[in-house]
Amino acid sequence: MDQVLSQQEIDSLLNAYDSGELDEEVIDEEQNDESQAKPYDFRRPTRLSKEYINTLHMIFEDFAKMSGNVLSNILRTNLDMQLASIEQISYDEFIHSIPRVTLIGMFKAAPLKGSHMIEINPQLCMTLVELLCGGADLESNRKNQPPLDKNGFTDIELSLLDEVMSEFSKILQSVWKEVLTLDVELESLETNPQLLQSLSPNEPVVLATFTVQLFGVSTFINLCIPYVSFEGILDKLSLHNWFDSSQELSEDDQSELKHGLNAIDLPMEVALGNTQMDLADFLKLEPGDVIKLDSKISSPLDTYIEDRPFYWVKPGKKNGQFAIELLSKIEGEEE
């Protein structure tokens, strides 16, 4: 706070100025040297430095990649998820930026304080529900569909979406592993953000927004983390302390990495053959029609792993189920 002058001191300064003993330019220079007040928006508090945000950027990018892969496997269709932005805003701003009825997963991430919140908008939620219920080609129906305005979710819809939200707990636990070990658990599903009382309106939060591309439609998923969650781990968010490129993996880390890689599910497909037909013939197809393929019964079939040809196989049956016998590896493919 600036020093408060007495009336006698003020009179002395005025008299010195009038008599020329005090130079006006000196006063101006002293005023210019003083620190200038800077505006501060209490509704948009900035707590984390650029270095910490850069670390979070890498964590959230990993979250987007893993989420995209996991959701693609669950839904059996291509889903692309990318980090769009990271903002430091107030909790009230976050609540007012999302639909009045939406899906919010509340996650407890011990030992961190506060709750992680993942918000999925209703339009994406209903697409997920349709795919989980066996929907296949929804692309033509989704591109021209107007934004969905739901009044609520049914118990069946929430039950299906709970399975999707539960996958995020595993992903959050995995992407934070380089910083610290978290025990992430889905506590509840909320559909009315206005009724959430987990934080005060002016509480600062970090909001990560992700774009989701599905069937040609772009939607959003939001990850909201209160600033209080970072208070005890700011030193671990430093890039210098997060990883050291010269540090080798310990035997335990190598064993755990190998165990994690061995547990990854890889889609395997066997192609019976290919054929070509005119559109007119295709439109005339009916149940019971026979389509001739370009492969012979005696010829081995191609087996694809992650859409790459890997093995020649022979089809057959074992224990009453279809099976394949590996014959040889396709030349030119690396394991």
From TrEMBL:
Q: Which InterPro entries match?
A: CheC-like_sf, Flag_FliM, FliN-like_C, SpoA-like_sf
Mind listing the GO molecular function terms for this protein?
cytoskeletal motor activity
Q: Which CDD domains match?
A: FliM
Q: Where in the cell is it found?
A: Bacterial flagellum basal body; Cell membrane
Instruction: Give the CC-aspect GO terms.
Output: bacterial-type flagellum basal body; plasma membrane
Membrane topology term reads:
Peripheral membrane protein
* GO biological process per UniProt: bacterial-type flagellum-dependent swarming motility; positive chemotaxis
Keywords linked to the UniProt accession: Bacterial flagellum, Cell membrane, Cell projection, Chemotaxis, Cilium, Flagellar rotation, Flagellum, Membrane
The family line of this record is: Belongs to the FliM family.
User: What protein does this entry describe?
Assistant: Flagellar motor switch protein FliM
Q: Which organism is it from?
A: Ligilactobacillus acidipiscis
